[in-house]
Each structure stands twice: as C-alpha cells, then as structure tokens.
Queue: 2 jobs
Job 1
Amino acid sequence: MQRAAASRERKPLAQVSCPRKVILFIMALAGVRVIELAGLAPAPFCGMILSDFGAKVIRVDRTKVATAVDTQARGKRSVAINLKSTEGVALLRKLCVQSDVVLEPYRKGVMEKLGLGPKELLKENPRLIYARLTGYGQSGSYATAAGHDINYLAISGLLSRLGRRGEKPFAPLNLLADFAGGGLTCSLGIVLALLERTKSGKGQIIDTSMVEGAAYVGSFVWKSRRIGLWDNPRGQNLLDSGAPFYDTYQTSDGKYMAVGAIEPQFYRQLIKGLELDAGELPDQMSVNDWPELQQIFTERFASKTQADWSKIFDRIDACVTPVLSFDQVSSHQHNQERASFIKDSSGEESPRPAPVLSRTPAEPCLASDPVIGEHTVEVLKEFGFTSADIDQMLAAGVVECSAVKAKL
Ligand SMILES: C[C@H](CCC[C@@H](C)[C@H]1CC[C@H]2[C@@H]3[C@H](O)C[C@@H]4C[C@H](O)CC[C@]4(C)[C@H]3C[C@H](O)[C@]12C)C(=O)SCCNC(=O)CCNC(=O)[C@H](O)C(C)(C)COP(=O)(O)OP(=O)(O)OC[C@H]1O[C@@H](n2cnc3c(N)ncnc32)[C@H](O)[C@@H]1OP(=O)(O)O
C-alpha cells in the first residue's frame, strides 16, 4: 500500500501567551510509553485516548497482514512483530521492559501461552502497568468465551432495559460495552494506575471486563430502581422513551427533534413552543395518558421542518434540540463555536478528544493512520536496537516494515 508519509509529530507543547511570558504546556500523558497489542475495537479506542492526551502509543500488529482493522489509530505508530516466533516474543518483552503500559485485548490465557503474561513482564519491569481488556474478565466461567459488545451488554443486565415498548431488546450500536464499559473504562484504569505509581513506584495488573464496565456505566439505572424509575416494562418508563416529553419526533422533512423536557418548567416551555394549550392536555405525569400525549406531540412535530422547529426551540429553554446527522454535526453553530470536530490530513472528520483540559489540552495527531509495520525500524531504533539487529530480524521474518512512499 502506498500513500504519502505524513508527519506524526504533534506539537507536544501547547503554547499560550500571557501578558508577561509565553507558557509552555506539556500534554497530560506526555512521556508515557504504551505498547498496544492490536485488537478489534475497545482496546484501539483505549490506545487512542491515551495517544490523544500525549502518550506515545506503539501498536503491535501481526506480520503478513495487509490491512489494519484499527479505525481508532490516531497518533499511533505501528510495529509488525510475529509473536508466533521465539524471537518475536523476546522482542516484545524487551519493548515492555522500556515501557509504562502494555495493553492486551486477547482471550484469557493467550498472553500466558505466549510467555508474555503479567507474571513474566512485571518481573522484568515492576513499574509496568499491565492492562487487560476482555469481555468477561480474567476469572469466572465465561472468562475464556468469545463474545462481542451485544453479549457483554446482555450479561451486564443493561440490554434487558434497552428498547421501545413491546419490542425486543435493542443494542445501541456497539457503544456501551465496547467503548464506554471497555475502552474508556480501561483508559481510566490505566490513568489511575499511573497516578498511583507516582506514590508507590509500582505497576499493577488491570482486569477490565466489558460486562462490569458496562454495568458500572449503568449504575444510575441500577441504583435508581429504588425510586421506581424503572418499575414499568421496557420502553414504558420516564427515560426509556415511555414518556412523551423524553423522546424523538419526526418533522415534516423526515428529520427528527429530540425532546428532553422532564422538569415542569421545561415542560411548560415545550408546550408553549409547540403552541399547544396546556389546559386542554392531560397532566404531564399522568402515565396512563402518555400514549395520547405522544400522539399529540407526534402530530405537532410533523407540521414543520427540523429547521423551523430548531429556530423556535433555540430561543426557548425547553430542552428540545434537532437530532443532527453526521453530515450536519460539524456545521451546527454550537459545535462550530467550540471546534468540537476536527479534520485530519486526509479530510476525515471526527470528534475532538474530550474532555478539554484548561492548561494541558489534548493535541490530537492529524496525520493519517499508520499502515501495518510503518514504524518498525523507527521504533526499534528508539528502543536501542542497532541497524544490524533490525536487519537480522527483518530477514528472519520476526518483524516487518512497510515503507511508506513519500509524495513526489
Ligand atoms: C462488535 C465489536 C466488533 C466490531 C469489529 C469490527 C470493527 C470489525 C469486525 C470484522 C472486521 C472486518 C473484517 O475483518 C473483514 C475486513 C478485513 C479488512 O482487513 C478490513 C475491512 C474488514 C471489512 C473489517 C472491518 C472491521 O474491522 C470489522 C468490521 C466488538 O464487540 S469488539 C470486542 C471483541 N471482544 C474482545 O475484544 C474481548 C477480548 N477478546 C476476545 O475475546 C477475543 O480476542 C476475540 C475478539 C473473541 C477474538 O478471538 P480469537 O479466537 O480470534 O482470538 P484470541 O483467542 O484472542 O487469540 C488471538 C490469537 O492471535 C495471536 N496473535 C496475536 N497477536 C499476534 C502477532 N502479533 N503475531 C502472531 N500471532 C498473534 C495470539 O497468539 C492468539 O493465537 P492463538 O489463538 O493461537 O492463541
């Protein structure tokens, strides 16, 4: 694969002028070296978060693979190592000795089988943070079972609560287990372990289970059962599309508006914006009348376009917003004002890293994603290997390097 080599150099220091001096800010995770073993979706997201906030993330890919499946590769470098060779395993161990974090997304037992388990690696580098990201965690009878987001969400209990009235459970893309409960939760674990290491000087093992991560993200659902928030069947409660004032409505141009007018003061504004007469409507909290109210709102919203409703509700504090498509998002005034979306060098648009840190904000890399093995030589040199060592490993097929042709 040929493409132009783009600089992966980010401005590691953000400069901010103040009246007396120029202050240099270092990104929060600058200086942290991460070895990420290539995975499907959750671990790549975790690696991208660390990279966005300044860590040097090296993705370890397999050899003899043409295309990376990692769509979350922003800012990473790729080294291709054959871990089915003794030399490849020895090489990875050497990389881990000089790193702060290793992130592995394989089925339980895979790393141990390779001789790369936490026992071995922490012995060689006691400061290493060994992050494991799996569906079911490192123990329990499902620990070695294959699975995907929908399975983890199902076992967390959350999936049973997701879906509309009378319909089967519905998984909202693969966001909750893979990304919220998986990649994001694992990145939190890594940052916590890095923070703790500043005091103890010691690394530790992080066991991220996407089932538990998703369940934890769902703590509100669990712990608000005691106030009766989820007493009705799926899709018939306040926040699961049961209530007419917490739902989406189609507009006359086939787009949608999102309504979140829960509190009475916002609900009053919703009724005002819809030009309805509150006196002629059932009470907001009369659950039995919710289907009737939903019908009334449906008819009202269908009478104007999304742009018309947006104009009305942008001026009213009613918690009503347009449901923006990906095409509309970055040109929305609010998102534009905050520069919430970025474009990389190939023109691909994506969300900018969140949250925004006031002194040490993320500086996401805008170069295009690495091809497999693009940085093998560069990284191995950085870790102290000589050109002769590298040539020998290349010749033996222990590592591969894909040269990226510079644009002529
Ligand atoms: C719903 C999501 C998943 C969404 C993913 C999609 C984004 C992608 C899914 C399919 C992709 C498309 C497809 O591949 C076809 C095209 C390919 C093309 O190249 C690109 C375009 C494609 C259209 C492509 C596009 C996209 O990428 C897709 C649409 C999820 O839920 S993700 C969460 C999954 N679960 C976990 O991560 C939990 C923990 N992991 C696991 O449970 C298992 O790893 C898993 C995921 C079940 C896979 O099990 P598997 O048996 O395959 O592997 P493991 O048991 O873990 O063992 C790994 C073996 O690999 C060896 N190994 C590792 N590194 C190396 C190396 N460097 N060298 C040599 N060998 C290596 C390791 O030793 C293991 O070997 P053994 O089996 O012998 O022990």
Job 2
Amino acid sequence: MINKPAKTIHDEYWHPHIDKETYESFHYTSLLYLSDYNKDFEGGRFIFMDKNDVNTTIEPRKGRVSMFTSGSENLHLVEKVKSGTRYALTVSFTCDESAAISDLYFTETLN
Ligand SMILES: O=C(O)CCC(=O)C(=O)O
Ligand SMILES: [Fe+2]
C-alpha cells in the first residue's frame, strides 16, 4: 500500500462529493474500515451532508461496514486525517452489466 499526495480533486477526499459523479458505473458504494478512529488516526470521520443541514457522521472502526446508494442523495465527505494512518476498503456495486467484472464461476456454471 502506498501513501501519495492527492493529484486530482477526486483524490482530495475531504471535499463534499457524489460517488456516481466521480465513478459513473457506481450504483452502490460500500466501505469496510480497517482502522479505528481516535486510536489509529485522528480526524477522518465520514460525514453524510444531509439536506436539512443535520449531518450524519460515521466513525470508522475496524470491521465496520457502511453501504449506501452512490447518487446525489448521498452527498458526503471525509474529514482530513490529522494524524496517524486511516485504512478503508471501497467495494462498489454496479447494476450496469457492461461495467461489471465478469464472474468466471457464474459464467461457466449458468451458461
Ligand atoms: O474512506 C471513506 O470513508 C470514504 C471515501 C470516499 O468517500 C470515496 O472514496 O469516495
Ligand atoms: Fe465518496
């Protein structure tokens, strides 16, 4: 794993964004957290920017999974990490067959 400075606006995770605008094929975004907020790192909470100005905050914790639709209904940002190292694994799901990764098992078994 590498730690490099952000090159594009999309690498700058602390801006409010919509995943589907960044990655067109995304329909569902899931996140698996691999480190603990306030133990392994400071800052780095995930924040949904709710329309009524009441934000919803997720504190990353090892093994915690978050899943949400990737459209404008789920505008979000991640606070800048102030110290330590934060690990999160993004797993996306698509309903677009042309963007899907082929699954050899299903391809061979069902066809
Ligand atoms: O690491 C996270 O909690 C979310 C990152 C994110 O919003 C993204 O990669 O689009
Ligand atoms: Fe995102």
